Amino acid sequence: MSARVPGNWLPGNWLPGNRLPRNWLRSTWLSRPGGPAGAAVAAGVAAGAAVLAGCGTVQAPGSAAASGSAGVSSSVTASPSGSASGAAGVSATASPSGSASGAAGVSATASPSASGPATTTCASSGLRVRLDTTAAGAAAGSYYVPLDFTNTSGQACQLTGYPAVAFTSGMTGQQIGAEAAVDKSVRVTTVLLPSGGTAHAWLQVLSAANYPASKCHPVTAAGLRVVAPGSESAAYVPHPVPACKMAIQGSEILTVHPVQQGLAQRGTA
């Protein structure tokens, strides 16, 4: 970087071998700002400033230099965070594309795009609940039947954990016996249900005939009251079945598994 100095900036009497008067600088050079000497000083100062300004600008790696407004030159300083700021109230943050720009007194920050909305828990109003008797299977003194939960809400939702299940005397009837126990031997997972998708939870039903009538007080339940995981509203599933009106301590007639992905396959309970 260099600046050319005007050829006439030295006074004519400044030659090799000549000694300048003691008060020449004060009286001749500095006391005449409007004369050739003063102009020469101004030109020299301007040239030096141009050299310094050209050497003092730092451009942030990967970004364009930020510039000030109203003829004010500004320098850009790169920071570890990748932002660039200029003088005269100019600040800018480099965007992922590698460019930075700013105006006097204005700061701008590029932010990443917002993520999509989180999936919510399935509401009971958007679920169809039924027993899939085609996948049911029998075991000694009991049988297994899956409860299906189909998403009818029109948007994705999720289910996690165990449904609450109990026998009932009707859609608006009273609960019969104790609520189903939960089988903790099966791992709980979060099931994502797309619109129209189905999840299932296995239900084990013990035969009421296994218990003495004096303890069981056998009745016929009209169906099941089912509350999906994370919901508060119950669905009614018609399913007449012998049940015990009395809760028998240490022996659960109903046991439910956690919700699992997809339709149940027979023999997988």
How does this model look, in words?
The structure is a single chain. By secondary structure, the protein is an alpha+beta fold. Helices cover about 10% and strands about 30% of the residues. It has three helices and 16 strands. The protein has helices at about 25-30, 35-55, 215, and strands at about 75-80, 85, 90-95, 125-130, 135-140, 140-150, 155-160, 165-170, 175, 180, 190-195, 200-205, 220-225, 235-245, 255, 260. The longest helix has 20 residues, at about 35-55. The model is unreliable at about 10-15 and about 25-115 (pLDDT under 50).
Notable traits:
269 residues, alpha+beta, Immunoglobulin-like, seven-stranded mixed beta sheet, four-stranded antiparallel beta sheet
Task: Report mean pLDDT, rounded to a whole number.
Answer: 72
Number of extended strands: 16
CATH topology name of the domain at 124-261, in short, is Immunoglobulin-like
Structural class: alpha+beta
Helix-strand pattern, N to C?
A: HHEEEEEEEEEEEEHEEEE
Characterize the overall form. Answer: globular
**Radius of gyration from the alpha-carbon trace, in angstroms:** 43 Å
Which stretches of 5+ consecutive residues score pLDDT under 50?
9-16, 24-116
- What does the main sheet amount to? 7 strands, mixed
Helicity level: 10-25%
Number of H/I helices: 3
> Strand share of the residues?
25-35%
Amino-to-carboxy terminus distance: 83 Å
CATH class of the domain at 124-261: Mainly Beta
| CATH-defined architecture of the domain at 124-261 | Sandwich
